Amino acid sequence: MKRIFILLSFAFVLISCAQRGAAPALLWGGEMHNSNASTPESIDASLDLAAELGFNTVLAPVSWELLEPVQGGFDFSLVDYLLKAADKRNLYLGLLWFGTWKNGESSYPPLWVKGDTVTYFRAPTDVAEKTGPISPFCEAAREADATAFKALMAHLKKADTARRVLCVQVENEVGVFAERDYSPAGIKAWEESSWSRSDDPLAPQYFMAEAYARYVDAVAAAGKEAYDIPLFTNAWLADADKAYGKYPNGGPRVAVLDAWKKNTPHLDWLSPDIYGPDLREMCAAYADGQPLFIPETNCKAGRYWYALGEAGAKGVFGFGYEEHFDDPYFTAECKVISEMMPLVCEGHPMRGFVRIDKKDAPDSVFALSLGNYTFCVHCIEGEKNAHGIIVQTAPDEFTVAGVGAWIDFGPSARIAFCEELRDGRRWQVLNGDETGHHNMLYLRGRLDLPDGAPYYGLSFQRRFRPACQELFKVSGIYRIKLYNL
Fold first, then answer.
1. Tell me: the pLDDT tens digits for 12-33?
2. Distance CA 313, CA 4 (A)
3. Dist. CA 307–CA 105, nearest whole Å
4. Dist. CA 289–CA 357, nearest whole Å
5. All domains of the chain, ordered by start, with CATH?
6. Global pTM?
7. What gap in Å lies between CA 208 and CA 180, rounded to an integer?
8. Which of 303, 228, 271 minimizes the C-alpha distance to 3?
9. Is residue 253 within 8 Å of residue 287, measured between CB atoms?
């Protein structure tokens, strides 16, 4: 019930923003590289690219060591600059609090914390070790982190007059690279817990999950007290058969998601960082009873379309988008996504699809029901990309964006009308062999042609020609009307 309420609350926040002409209903964009919010110059460079790509939201780090270089001495100048820079470019923000932990390590606390290993003791990965990340059983670290986070949230409430910050991530991919925390406090807590007497093979994971969840929730509670906007944390996902030490044990992974939900009443949702081929499974797991919000995934358009169109994500972000400034597939696809987002955000019924490399067959077929029709999506073997989204705008009318596939609509459905859109306007009316004589929609995509070269289309018959598959193409946008014979 709590997570359902959170889902409604998150929707209310976004709707309220939209009503005052602010945030869109669905958030998409990129997560900055870790150091790109550390100076005004790098902030400007990252946000310039985000605006050029058409993002509506950017996730940006706030580093504890830069925020509180001296205990009790807070410097909000970078935060203030980030707020103004985002507002200038009409971008919205999710802040990432790099506090006690980032990727299971403790490299972002200030020196007065990192340098005092007695007060802020570590979680060694073996009883013989003395170093490691800060222990989740360290009360002094938890109190210091909570104090800093509360100061940040209080400042945001006052300084973010344009309400650019929509949510804040508390810590990043927490956990210890070991079976459990071998600090004296960690050993004592383990011995006193019921998990130490359990024969459940996941007992160490549950034990560490509860410890990290309680720590993160205490930090979140302090922040909520100062400024009540959506808060979340994220998980470094790992294959079930990976050994301890290959991922941060204790984070909100699928195996221990129930423990995290139970112990984090001040978090609004728990997020997955999805890079592997299990995109569909992870979306389903984290959409269960809470908003699906993906702060990190690959910078590939198909993942955006599947998360938003099929999995019902409220937000999806490609990590380190700055590295992809010269990737023609990604940058051109972002333009297409930005053209589609106003329609996608209107709340129409929609479906999404993506062929996942190393998991799906090159010629995979997906059957997607929408309204009174079944869209049978045939991925074209040899195409670099096969992905898209289908939005129903009326009982028999749809807008489709995608590439690398062709779609039929069942034995009795035909296309009454088909046009390709660019920049929101009609580019071409498609008929004849471009639509298989009204039998199918060919997602031929947009062709990247040399300056001055005439535009030409790829007909349905060319879909199996290797030379056509190798041409550079990104998603096209098509508006169709269907009818039944």
1. 445 444 444 567 899 999 999 9
2. 15
3. 29
4. 29
5. 2-347 (3.20.20.80), 352-484 (2.60.220)
6. 0.93
7. 6
8. 271
9. no
